[in-house]
Amino acid sequence: MPIFTPIPQEQFVAHVLALADQIGVDSWAPSYLIGIGRGGLVPATFLSHATGLPMLSVDYSSQVEEFAEGALARLAARTQGGDKLLFVDDINDTGGTIGRLRTILAEQGAVAGSIRFATLIDNVRSAQRVEYHAETIDRAITKDWFVFPWEAVAPQSKLADDAAAVPERTA
Known about the structure:
Layout: E1 4-6, H1 9-25, E2 32-37, H2 41-51, E3 55-59, H3 65-80, E4 85-92, H4 96-107, E5 115-123, E6 132-137, E7 145-147, H5 156-164
Parallel strand pairs: 1-7, 2-3, 2-4, 4-5, 5-6
């Protein structure tokens, strides 16, 4: 059974504000924040309020790629018109989600340099890198399953199932 580590609301807000600060001092300015469903929707909403940037969303957590691909194709097309998109997620753990999104966006013709990623937590051992993060972990050391405020209402069994989906994260 994994160790469940709750992320308190105050820590979550501090992470969002840290991301807002990083974005605010960077010369690369996003046109839109894109919340990645499901874990990135709440952080993106808070980040939108903190930065004043408009937010869109894409549902990737459903694993129904044809649903996500339509939205991603439209987002890739926006980059061809000059928009810069900052995708927001809760954690860059294995890099699977970010890597797949980058691949789909590239296949759909997204302009290089117009896509970036921000996460609350970044695993240094991830297969993908993000441009903005509030906290860094090393999965070789930190095996905890982080429970973000919006997940606190989930049954313990569902959290355990999610953690077990990729056992090397918590083993």
